[in-house]
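Help!! Second protein's tokens look totally different from the first
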Amino acid sequence: MTNEIFRGGFVPGDNSTNAKSKTLGPATVPTESLQPNPHNPRMLFDKAPLKTLEESIRKVGVLVPLTVYKASGSDHYTILDGQRRWMCAKSIGLRDVPINEVAEPSVAQNIVTMFQIHKLRKDWELMPTALKLGVLMDALQERRDKQLAVLTALDVAVVSRCKKLLTFPTSFQEMMLFSDPNDRIKADFFIELYPIITDRLIVRAEWYNRDEITKRFLNKYQNHYSEFKSITDFRKIKQYITNARSSGHERQFLRRFKLLLDDDSIGISSLDIGPSKIHRKAQQITKAIAKISDELRAIEVTEYFGEEELWRVLETLSEIVRRTLARADRREP
């Protein structure tokens, strides 16, 4: 089904500005004859960058023509590329703008073309991109990350992040779409939270409610409760879950996790269960000793007779091992 969007010569990675590769030609048209593209993955336009572009257009005009098409039955041109230029032209009262008109694409072609043109510019917010990716996924019945990455020219990692955002309810998605950047919740908050609210240990809890957990962490994050300083603190929680699982302390962890959710005075460090921490340290020491043991077994002793420092260190290590075993009431073999 996805092959349908390649008919007419458009292929992934093609730099053409229209899915059908048919250009109708340049022209100058009234600014008011254009309209935004309903399938533009970019929905948020912050004021500061627009102001800079507006000043440039005041001085030299619109130098790069906008790429547009005329939808069937419409008197207006729809913008494929150049919405920011058009917005600034309108703002300063520019009567006409240069355009390159192309043939009308299908919905899927429209979205793919928009992605191919822009290739997720740095100042794009991720949630609007995710929403349009969701439309494309439904239109093409395509869910595979690699195939979607080829279609859109997005990185596979970006596709994966977008798909995670689409699993959140609309109420949370809207928080990432607030027009004021100061009120907007960054997509990274939900992406970093995702591995926690989908972890099988948390999901199995009888009190599990994904939306409620999200709300409580959002409150902690916004108000800096429970030692939250950065969204990367969610990675610490994920590590605590892994530690508890590997040491067999899942139930104890879940009790502490529930207390953390319910009480904003409790810090996330409370999730680092003592035995889990000791178990993790023991594993680290075991690996280090195993590595040294392998190296000692591999050396040819006669070749190292002159390395006095090595032998002194080994003698000290041997004494430390002996005393440590004695304190643990263990006997050397």
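Here's the second one for comparison:
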Amino acid sequence: MKRTVLFHYAKRISLIALLCFAAFTLSVAQKPAPATDTKQVNKEAKPADTKPGPKLPFTLTVKMRPILNISLKAEKAKMYEVSQELSKKLKTPIFLGPERQNELITVEFSELTLEPALQLMSPTVYVDYEIDTGSGEQPKPLGIFFYDANQGEPPPTAVVTGTGQSMLIEGNTEDGVEPEGGEAKKDEEQPLRVTYENKLLTVKAKKQPLSLVLLKIGEELGIPVDIQTQNLTEVDAEISKLPVEDVVRQLSPHIRLFVRADLTRAEKRALRLVYAEPIKVAQ
């Protein structure tokens, strides 16, 4: 019996020892891992040191809506750099005269439309435009010229180019027959009369082909006319003493007029006329 009691006692001690060992093992397994050095992690995760580029000595903002307007603040900035940035924002080529290349400008203005803004940037400015009579949009600038004072005007084909040109051939089957009333009555009876005086255009047409009217306008203005359509639309109109732009807008929505604005002299003149039907997009 004594041996039995000792046996049970020894068995109980072994069981207790096993339980304590298991509890110690579980405690060691659940012990949290040592804390990571956050300073070291942050140091390793820190991005590469990137230095910002040199700050431009001017601030230029161009807004296209609701109308084109420009804001500029420049303090002894290179005209070349300002023009380059303006060209990029307007998506329009800008040409500088030789003396303007390294010129420094100091100017400040806010939300001015194109032409007043350009005039503050340069004493001599030319702008070539394209006017689409059917778009309803403002004239599109094709090229801007910041020229030197004594450089002269850019050539007409500096940005407005084209190889097509139509010719006007006139004739009179009644030569030698003088109508009653002399020259005055003869002029009144002409089915097409175009005059250009004091930078104003007058067109009087009685059922005349539009292409013929445009060729006559081109002859009067001394500019090339490119007829790219066989459309025989007739014109029956009487337009008196209006700027060229207003006249062609009234004649057809399928005309593109190219003009040059001399901002120094506040003058505009036509460079080229193109008459073409709109391109039909296949469904």
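Reply: Different proteins will give different token patterns, so don't panic. The mean pLDDT is 80.
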